[in-house]
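Q: I'm writing up a methods section and want to include an example of the input and output format. Could you take the sequence below and give the corresponding predicted structure tokens, formatted cleanly so I can copy it straight into the document?
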Amino acid sequence: MRLQAPWADRWGLPGMPRLLIGAKSPYPAALNWLMEAFVVRAVIAKIVAVFGLILQADNLLEGSWQSRDWPTFVRTWLVTTVGVAVMAFLLPFLMFMLPALLYDLLALVMKTRTIPISFRDSLAFGSRFGGMVGLFFFVSVIPMMYLKQIAGDWKLED
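A: Here is the clean output for your methods example:
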């Protein structure tokens, strides 16, 4: 028997499994639903916060470019570049290491094979990926600002 979240049909996700793995849960159904709702709301709140920071950084970059406030633009440009590089560095850990560790934990319980993924390889990939994304962002910000200005997206008042 596959358990299904109560909000799965409402969001158009039929057959979505519960966060608690297994056919039987030691908790009552209402508590399962409450725990899932708490986790989903927490994850959505974090995602909204991250996108809010991205929007604030973009507005600060564009505003300082338009007002020709170069010290603010350079500081925002560098801080945003570092932030993008750090997020890109952490992404492989979220995409590779965390699922592999969860699978390994489940494999230990079920006594099956584990996934051979190393922390060192993830660290090497994350550092290269973060450096590449950060460098691309660093190099592409000024051409993007010029393109927005040339395309007429802003009305600059001199």
